[in-house]
Amino acid sequence: MTTSRIATALSLLGGIFIIYVGINYLFAPEMTAAGFGLPAVPEGDAVAFLNLKGVRDVVSGLVILGLLATKQRFALGVAMLATSLTPFGDMATVLSWHGSTATAFGVHGFTAVLVALAGVLLIRERRVSTTERPLVAA
Predict the structure, then answer these.
(1) CA distances from 101 to 27, 31, 34, 96, 104 (A)
(2) What is the pLDDT of residues 51-89, one digit of tens each?
(3) pTM for the whole thing?
(4) Cα separation, 68 vs 74, whole angstroms
């Protein structure tokens, strides 16, 4: 499997997965939040903050899928690198609020690494293709 296909698969799966997570936060916020890794789940009116997370996740996924669909691979790579900061921030938040270390590293940290890897692979595609010169017939 080529690095281009790996980057495409990671991007596609990441985009679909984060949209799925976002939809769950919109329609079943308390149940979904229980798996985030924090020691407490918002209650009452504070549950509205979970809807904000749902919207953020759906939009992040749509950006990824939109750039992938329009074949903007370098822009997708930059977006993936920037987007990798979201799960990294989620990991840092879970750790700083004394949440589940396993979830912090196993879910959020692992996701950050995969998203960043996809970004690097996508950006590297452009660097490799611009350094290769076409053969010129003599």
Answers:
(1) 26, 20, 14, 10, 5
(2) 999 999 999 999 999 999 999 999 999 999 999 999 999
(3) 0.86
(4) 10
Strand ranges in 1-94 using DSSP code E only, listed in sequence order: none
**Rounded-to-integer distance, Cα 138 and Cα 135, Å:** 9
* Residues contacting residue 73 through CB under 8 Å, at least 6 positions apart: 7, 67, 122, 125, 126
User: Exposure of 24 by Cβ count < 10 A (0-12 exposed, 13-18 middle, 19+ buried)?
Assistant: middle
Q: How many residues does the chain have?
A: 138
132 φ/ψ angles, rounded to the nearest 5 degrees:
-80, 135
Report residue 132 as tokens. 């290769």
Q: C-alpha angle 77/22/121, rounded to 5°? A: 15
Contact 65, 90 (CB under 8 A): no
